[in-house]
Structure formats: C-alpha cells, structure tokens
Amino acid sequence: MKINNKKILLSGVAPTGNLTIGNYIGALKNWSQMQAHYDCLFIVVDMHSITVRQDPSTLRERSISFAAQYLASGIDPEQSIIFIQSNVPAHAELAWILNCFTNVGELNRMTQFKDKARKYSSNVNAGLYVYPVLMAADILLYQANIVPIGDDQRQHLELTRNIASRFNNLYGKVFQIPEAYISRAGARIMSLLNPERKMDKSDLNSNNYIALLDEPSVVLKKIRQAVTDSGREIKANKTKLGISNLLTIYSCLSGIPIAKLEEQFKDENYAGFKKELAELIIETLRPIQNRYKKLIGDKEYILTILKQGAEKASERAERTLKEVRERIGFVPLITKIQ
Q1: Residue 78 covered by a domain
Q2: Is 260 a catalytic residue?
Q3: Residue 267 forms part of a structural domain
C-alpha cells in the first residue's frame, strides 16, 4: 500500500530507560532522513513497555519526553505522524485477533522472550510472551511497506510476515507484507563497558551508554571510561571490540569511513582519540538538547501534536480493522441500539 505514491514506513521505541546515542544512530537519525522519501508513522510504544513493571507517573512523563526527543532529533510533524501507541485502541484489538492466528510453536522460538524471561524472572507474564504479536499488530494496522529494525528484531518481523501471510491465505489479501530496513552503518552500537553486547537504553549501569540528554561533562566521563582493549592501535577488528565500537560511533556521526579514521588516528593514543570522539558526540547532541529544552517547556504543544497524530493514525488503523472484522465474521460495529 502507498499513500501519495510514497511507501509507508513505521517504527517506534518503547518509553523505558533513556534514549541513547545508539538509538539516535540506529533509528532517529535515519528516521529524520527517511521522512522526506516515505509516508512515515513514528510511535512511542508504551503498551510494549508494561511487560515490565513501570511506575505510572514515570511512564507518562517518559512517553512525553520520548516524543519530544523524536521532535528534537528532526522528526517533523508536518511530514510524519507521531503518536503514542495506547492512544490508538486498535492496536490492542488487532493484537488479540492476531494472537488467534499465531502458533504457540512460533512464539516458543522467539529468542528475545527467552532472554527477557531470564532477565525478568520474577515477572514472566503473558504479555512478555505475546509481545511479538503486538508488534505485528503495530505494523499490519498501517499496511506498512518498510520497517526499520535492528538485527535483534529480524525474528519478530519474520513472524509478522508469517502471520500476515497466514491471514491473507485464509481470508484473501488484507495485509501488506512488510519488508525490513536495516541500516548498514550503526545498526548495532555496543555497550561502552561491555562491547560484546548491544547498547541498552534500559541498562541499570548508565555508564554503558550515552543518553541523548547527557550533559557534556557526563559524555566526556563515559567515553573516557569506555573499554578500548589492550594495546594502543586505533584499528577496528574482531579481536578489538571496544575500539571497534568507538570507531563505529565516530564513523556514524561524522560520515567518515572507518578506514579513513584509522589512517587519521594512526599516530594518536586512545586518550586523544576518546577526547575527539567525546567532542564529536557533544557537538552532535548540542542542537538536539537545545531543541528538546524548548519543546519540553511547552508540553501543551507536544500533547497537541500527539493528539493530532493519534487521530490521523486511528483513521488509518480503523480502515484496516474494519476489513479484518468483516473477513473473520464479526458483527458490524453497532453504534446505536434501536
């Protein structure tokens, strides 16, 4: 499906933890560039976040803050639809319907569930188990053609495609089969202190990530502490995960290929390289932080954008949901009893 001859692109982030430089490189930076070429919907997926216990007031404030950070990072509400997932009830309804078209065996194979079940062993709930089906509903409601994802979401998108195909085979073409978009550069930014695992915005140790709202002094401190491996050579390879990760961040923010950076810093030590990387991050984040401070000071403006976004999203979502209801045999929506 296309709107105004543009393919539909959909993506979102759960309002947990703090948006990081990894989220900016892997998602937000790409979103701001792609919105000129696609019909974009960007979601704050708060329904996904409650698979882990959340403080209600913190969740509300963080949802608004994430929306403000979307805007501050270059998402234009005149070009794209920005909204909060729970403001569009169709997500929950379609998720339930799609649960009935998802095999238990498929869900059992989801590696992220296994990882999160270990991490949150005191609260392994049904929502955590069917999380990928809600993600499928998010995508299929809007007939998305393109879904930007990280490597860790490939399995979930493949499940979405399987569910859509299964439904279409049973009831005729209803859902667009989405395609993944994975950025070649920066798709996987790693933890600063443990570069064997992905940078996580919900990491309990904040020194593992650079948050978009970190002050310059905090950025400098975190980069100074970042793991850089043994030796002194500033060169990316599979045995030097720490410096390779820092080179990747530098390359993604500067646009300079890693090979050229290796040449540029061949006579530099780790401390000098880290200082320049910290300065690059600080200058990248400065305009985002300045815009954010202005936006968050006017919450009514943000709420107006989110309300308008939810209305536009609901209009599209209801078209899909109406067809789904008809195909599976639900009685048409009764709005008035005679």
Answers
A1: yes
A2: no
A3: yes
Q: Which one of 116, 222, 240, 274 is the catalytic residue?
A: 116
Catalytic residue among 7, 114, 173, 201: 201
**How much of the chain exceeds pLDDT 70, in percent?**
96
Same domain, 158 and 36: yes
DSSP state letter for 24: I
Q: Active-site residue 221, yes or no? A: no
What total number of domains does the chain contain? Answer: 2
Write down the pLDDT at residue 186.
52
198 catalytic per annotation: yes
**Residue position matching structure tokens 């950070």:** 69
Give the start-end residues of each E strand in 200-246.
none
Do 308 and 252 share a structural domain? no
Q: Model-level pTM greater than 0.90?
A: yes
User: Is residue 90 exposed (0-12), middle (13-18) or buried (19+ Cβ within 10 Å)?
Assistant: buried
Shared-domain flag, residues 283 and 312: no
How far from 156 is each of 181, 316, 321, CA to CA, in Å?
13, 23, 21
- Tens-place pLDDT, residues 108-148: 888 777 777 777 777 788 888 899 999 999 999 999 999 99
